[in-house]
Aluminum-activated malate transporter
Amino acid sequence: MKFGQDHPRRLIHSFKVGVALVLISTLHHFRPSFYAFGDNIMWAVLTVVVVLEFSVGATLGKGLNRMLATFLAGGLGVGTHCLANLSGKKGEAVLTPIFIFLIAGTVTLMRFSPRFKVRYDYGLIIFILTFCLVSLSDEKESEMLEIAHERLLTIIIGSCIAVMVCICICPVWAGEDLHNEIAGNMEKLADFFEGFSDEYFNNSDTTHVVQDKSFMHRYKSVLSSKSSEETMAVLARWEPCHGKFKFHHPWKQYLKIGNQTRVCAYKIEALSAYLLHSKQNPHEVQSMIQESCTIISSECGKTLKESSLGVRHMTKSSMPNQHVANAKNAVESLKSVLRTNPWEGADYVDIIAVAAVASLLIDVVDCIEKICEAIEELASLARFVPSQLLHQGTVQPISKRDDSIHVIIIDEITPRLYE
Amino acid sequence: MKFGQDHPRRLIHSFKVGVALVLISTLHHFRPSFYAFGDNIMWAVLTVVVVLEFSVGATLGKGLNRMLATFLAGGLGVGTHCLANLSGKKGEAVLTPIFIFLIAGTVTLMRFSPRFKVRYDYGLIIFILTFCLVSLSDEKESEMLEIAHERLLTIIIGSCIAVMVCICICPVWAGEDLHNEIAGNMEKLADFFEGFSDEYFNNSDTTHVVQDKSFMHRYKSVLSSKSSEETMAVLARWEPCHGKFKFHHPWKQYLKIGNQTRVCAYKIEALSAYLLHSKQNPHEVQSMIQESCTIISSECGKTLKESSLGVRHMTKSSMPNQHVANAKNAVESLKSVLRTNPWEGADYVDIIAVAAVASLLIDVVDCIEKICEAIEELASLARFVPSQLLHQGTVQPISKRDDSIHVIIIDEITPRLYE
């Protein structure tokens, strides 16, 4: 039961499966007029068990696939059965296996096509299954049509019960999950950048003695998030409009943001290797770049936090761009520090590790700019509304020449939501 | 048909699905004594369609899951049905939905447990399905037992046909695929290192005018290979011994190698960013580290190529370790070059990008050493045989002081295979 308590949504899903099956068994017990199908009722049970998935997108996708595939394969099956019947008893014994071989082989080949694979894989399996069952049926044609009709109806009833239960009881939307995951991943990267300079330049001892640094490793889950994001984007496309998401919400754009976020996470992975050996570098070598690098890292963190907030609340804001501009200014001031030949006389072996951190941080700013561009594209595609700040915060630009750090405080952000 | 020609294995799989269904339809036509099951024969067709998967591991896993789950759920279903029957007609109408709700809910919750999820997910679905079908059945107990028995037999026949066809006609082993994928991924990284110094130090113009550099990007597929490797490792554990793989082949160790390979690929991703801007760096800054970096990069490439060859042929060899030692020597000579203050007077803004490359390459050597350690662990777990070189190649150690590059040629490696 422990893992059920960890995730209330899982507990609710288990409850929903139970409810859907109790609904079917009640129908089964009372047998209302629309549900008097003899032996075929088992198809309704089978459909509910197989179709009812965790997210609405998956349930709708499977339900539609199942209904459409049963309908098409049933029609084709009855057709080939009639054709085989025309050629007599012996002809039928030869023609049926040939039809099955050809259709099943072709459809299996179609399952490998990337285009069908992502959205219609389940439908293609059901197509083969239904076609074979109809072809191998011993019934006469008139009975067959009736059975096919009944089976299709039971599958529609089963699918409808599954979809109804899925949507009516605490629905889990794949699209919303994707939306939150993309925003959450940016926050994870932001956590790293906000902790980076403290950790790298050993400022942490001055504030807290013992600190939990686990938040610095949250970015690691972003490295391998590609496949789960892609799955959610496919499922999201089956979903109708819900909450703040319209019907043609640009789910594919989320994947672009996800890809850019991952590219940034790869750079972080490279940066994090230098955290381990940061104490081996002489402090005087590190301290030359400390100020600019601290600003770059914290501005990157702020950009990501703001962008993530913007995506989460579906609002447009100029704040991320201002933070990016600050980070770029800090890059310029880092470069001007470097031009003064700050490491005169130091050992180059010590220098290269510190130089690598500086260089990677400069690289990271480009990455983050690309994330912002992808988000802006999403904002215009999905028509995000401009954010209205109640306690308007201001970001003071950090000029190249003025090297003092401006503290930027935004008390509270109350975006006017889209809903 | 195009995508079928690209991958003969897919074409063969489609053929196999056709063959399995023709076998079932032939059984269906002739009805031998062991296959006279009335209406329940459709379960055999259903089983073949659903169980026959691309790899042997997946087919065996699904087949065993299906048989075991049907057996257990059938037993439990008959048991609860009898229990419900004891309480009369009205009691049954109340008790059956309660049983269904409890069992289906609990099993659905179990599906979320990571332990069950990876290996028994399909079995748990079939368990819910079978339990519901048996519980909702209208038959008397004696008939029910007979139906349950017949259904189990048809499912066993269907599973056996699927497994037989899968193993007998050009089998695809998930374990072998994982084995080749891990070796192939190392080769992809090796390609990058072998091309890196030419590309970075602009030596390429001297040899070929137009060169296809696409091999430099092959490593990108390694970045997101985690989930496919994990799936294959799970499927591989269902497979019996085959070819050079024994029954308890250490499939989990492959995942460790895969993780280390991915860590190396993340570093490569960071390195590759510097390739784009390599021409902006003044040649005199780059040339200081060219010699050592070229050796490090090429020795890393050779280590990975040799390791990959060793894994592919399941042989132990000391060659990778010798190449790692060479790379380490080159790191030391790079450090001694750096100690001479080579970039006196150059612009530090140019220096940091070059220094970052040097630093990342030093980092990469550690990564590759970890890959070699993981492979050695695999070699001892899976009892790789020492490689017997027919035309024995020698790797001349590159000493710290002697900076000339030794060309290491191994004409041909003919390992005595395990088979």
Notes: The longest helix of chain A spans residues 348-381. DSSP finds 15 helices and two strands in chain A. The longest strand of chain A covers residues 315-316. Residues 2-168 of chain A form one domain.
